[in-house]
Specification:
17 helices, 8-stranded parallel beta barrel, binds zinc ion, 10 strands, alpha/beta, globular
Length: 416
């Protein structure tokens, strides 16, 4: 098995131009004594929108690692794959996010279900888990949770074995259940982990659905205290399950759409410090927004293109937002008109888009709309990519600063 380091960070790079600037953020953390393993991820949906191949992610990652002489580990994540989409990712990827959210709630075979419940008598009744209130789960409760999740875990097993057959065991397995409506509770997580162990999946990271909203590119929306307590309970359940079911010792939580969730970083950091647990955070493709910020900051043709993209995005609002409906919340009334934005200075555009919550001109609605508007840049890719080259220094600076100052530093490095 290929081992994933304790702290790892999923980097999205839709147009495959920022791997080096992204890696620089990990270099900065390393210079302060904290190893954060970079993992470049791109989902099938993003590849389809851009028209790119998974091998391009590997090529960009390898090139950045060479150029910056990065000596420690890094990975390429086949993000949110399923049995029908995994094949073209098998060769270039060494990290697989097996997405089984759509299989939650599908009925497992009745015999398999019964045998799961029979086999796991230890889950029934009073259970002491260090660090949290004792769990009380009835046999019916175990059956209910298994009824919800057993089929999904079995599907994860099918996908895992499919990859293993093609690739051997030298890869990292993540299982994701985040793209669903209802968060998994800590007792449910325990049942899920027992089922994962039964399937023999050497899972190293698990992305549950947490309480609250993880909208793309903006801060956490929800009850931070409740998140804090659930996150800590999840950590306790994982530590318990690792020992009880002999799961990989480095199994850790993965926070998807974890970029920009500034208000939960302090509780997460406290929990990691208290428990010594590891963490994977997957960003939400927001490096593309740093490209736009850089273009706008560069002024001239860069700012012109950024404004054009906004105008187009506004004109195709519904169509762009539809596939992301569950992960964005845009208040149309707060979106400035195209005419207004066309009059904006470079500073005004940057001020609206850059995620600085203390900046009075920051506009979370503009940011979410532009987040889903990468399709528009992809449509005029020649011009977009040419401007990325021309404005490279200012874009790279934004990419690195965003990742390091607003993410790696508060999550992993602290005030050192
Ligand atoms: Zn996800």
């Amino acid at each position: 098995m290929l081992l994933l380091g304790k702290y790892s960070f999923g980097l999205g790079d839709r147009f495959a131009h920022q791997a080096k600037a992204q890696l620089r953020a990990c270099v900065k953390a390393a210079e302060r004594g904290v190893e954060v393993v970079p993992v470049w991820n791109k989902s099938n949906r993003e590849h389809l929108t851009i028209g790119s191949e998974p091998s391009s992610v590997r090529a960009a990652a390898d090139a950045a690692v060479r150029e910056l002489n990065w000596q420690t580990s890094y990975h390429v994540d086949a993000d949110h794959i399923r049995l029908e989409t995994v094949d073209r990712f098998v060769l270039p990827s060494d990290f697989f996010t097996i997405d089984v959210a759509d299989y939650i709630g599908r009925p497992a075979d009745a015999l398999a279900l019964k045998s799961f419940v029979d086999r796991h008598g230890e889950l029934v009744g009073h259970m002491e888990i260090p660090g949290i209130e004792p769990l009380e789960i009835s046999r019916a409760g175990v059956a209910r949770t298994a009824g919800q999740y057993l089929f999904a875990v079995q599907e994860a097993g099918r996908i895992y074995r499919h990859i293993e057959k093609a690739k051997g065991t030298r890869f990292i397995t993540e299982i994701s259940m985040d793209e669903t409506d209802r968060p998994q509770t800590p007792p449910e997580l325990l049942v899920i982990l027992a089922a994962i162990a039964d399937e023999g999946i050497p899972v190293q990271t698990l992305a549950p659905k947490f309480t609250g909203r993880f909208n793309k590119g903006v801060d956490y929306v929800g009850d931070v205290a409740q998140f804090d307590s659930e996150f800590n309970a999840d950590l306790a359940v994982i530590a318990f399950a690792v020992a009880r079911y002999r799961l990989p010792a480095n199994l850790k939580l993965s926070v998807h759409s974890g970029s920009d969730k500034f208000s939960i970083y302090a509780p997460i950091r406290r929990a990691l410090a208290r428990t010594g647990a590891g963490l994977h955070v997957k960003t939400a493709g927001t490096t593309w927004l740093e490209e736009l910020i850089g273009l706008a900051e560069a002024g001239g043709a860069g700012l012109g293109l950024a404004k054009e993209i906004y105008t187009e995005a506004l004109a195709h609002l519904d169509e762009l937002c539809a596939p992301y409906a569950a992960v964005i919340d845009i208040d149309g009334a707060k979106l400035p008109s195209a005419e207004t934005v066309n009059r904006w200075s470079s500073g005004q555009f940057v001020g609206a888009l850059r995620h600085d919550p203390t900046c009075p001109t920051f506009n979370a609605d503009v940011r979410q709309l532009l987040h889903v508007a990468y399709k528009i840049a992809a449509k005029q890719s020649e011009r977009y990519l040419r401007l990325l080259q021309e404005c490279e220094p200012v874009i790279a600076k934004n990419v690195t600063e965003n990742l390091y100052d607003r993410h790696l530093k508060p999550l992993f490095v602290g005030a050192r």
